[in-house]
Amino acid sequence: MRPANIVTSVADILAGIAIASAPGTLTERAWPTALLLCLSTACLYGGGIVFNDIFDVETDKTERPERAIPSGRVSLPEASVLGMLLLSAGILLAFLFSAASGILAAAIALCALLYDKFGKHHPFFGPLNMGMCRGLNLLLGVSIIPDVLNHWSMLALVPVVYIFSITLTSRGEVHGGKRNNLYVAAFLYAAVIAFISYFSYVNNRLLWSLLFILPFTWMIFKPLLIAIREPIGKNIGNAVKAGVISLILMDASWSATFSSLTFALMIACLLPLSMWLSKTFAVT
């Protein structure tokens, strides 16, 4: 279920909540709803990953035999039941708040299943498909105030582009990759950073946002540059791992841009938790 990654999905929800509350319309009564949406995304992400391993079981027998299903620690029927329960719970929890949130959760589940079964095998639509999962996840957080969903929907393009970059990079994680893919990823990373910085500047919050944008930039580019110099599987895997976990700092940047520094620091505190989990559980 990739626990370290699930933490990053919760950070997406918190970033979406920060964006939605930019006009100051969020009240203390909204926090139980925030918890509901965080639980929803945790289930959706976990369920999507379970089905990823279900559909990859034949490939994993050769490339990643240590995973739960090919190693025999979990049977295929057991994994299928777990995946269905998690996705169903994620959708139900979102519907408990609003129809808009429930529809977004259902769309995330559908996109995850499409990626797991079909998308990952396509060089362009696969990364785009995975990016859509994260973009919708950000909007799931924004849906805490349904009336502002249309206004901020364009911001979902940022995680789409960012995850597109990570997924493109991951193409060479097992057998080594092509530098061209890594160069494209570096360009898209830079575009994401520029976009967030622009919004921070427009909102007169650039100074606060840089507290998170700068370490975010360092964390994603350091392993990526190593992978560009030597595009072997291990280096690419490290770049992918850093890209996934760094999502927390990107989400903190969104919060610093639209909400309070305190809220941004709260999101950033999820980073050490995710990094700790990544030492015990697989990220990719």
From TrEMBL:
<feature type="transmembrane region" description="Helical">
    <location>
        <begin position="207"/>
        <end position="227"/>
    </location>
</feature>
<feature type="transmembrane region" description="Helical">
    <location>
        <begin position="182"/>
        <end position="201"/>
    </location>
</feature>
<feature type="transmembrane region" description="Helical">
    <location>
        <begin position="82"/>
        <end position="115"/>
    </location>
</feature>
<dbReference type="InterPro" id="IPR050475">
    <property type="entry name" value="Prenyltransferase_related"/>
</dbReference>
<dbReference type="InterPro" id="IPR044878">
    <property type="entry name" value="UbiA_sf"/>
</dbReference>
<keyword id="KW-1133">Transmembrane helix</keyword>
<feature type="transmembrane region" description="Helical">
    <location>
        <begin position="263"/>
        <end position="282"/>
    </location>
</feature>
<dbReference type="GO" id="GO:0016020">
    <property type="term" value="C:membrane"/>
</dbReference>
<keyword id="KW-0812">Transmembrane</keyword>
<protein>
    <submittedName>
        <fullName>Polyprenyltransferase</fullName>
    </submittedName>
</protein>
<keyword id="KW-0472">Membrane</keyword>
<keyword id="KW-1003">Cell membrane</keyword>
<dbReference type="InterPro" id="IPR000537">
    <property type="entry name" value="UbiA_prenyltransferase"/>
</dbReference>
<feature type="transmembrane region" description="Helical">
    <location>
        <begin position="33"/>
        <end position="51"/>
    </location>
</feature>
<feature type="transmembrane region" description="Helical">
    <location>
        <begin position="151"/>
        <end position="170"/>
    </location>
</feature>
<dbReference type="GO" id="GO:0016765">
    <property type="term" value="F:transferase activity, transferring alkyl or aryl (other than methyl) groups"/>
</dbReference>
<feature type="transmembrane region" description="Helical">
    <location>
        <begin position="6"/>
        <end position="26"/>
    </location>
</feature>
<dbReference type="Pfam" id="PF01040">
    <property type="entry name" value="UbiA"/>
</dbReference>
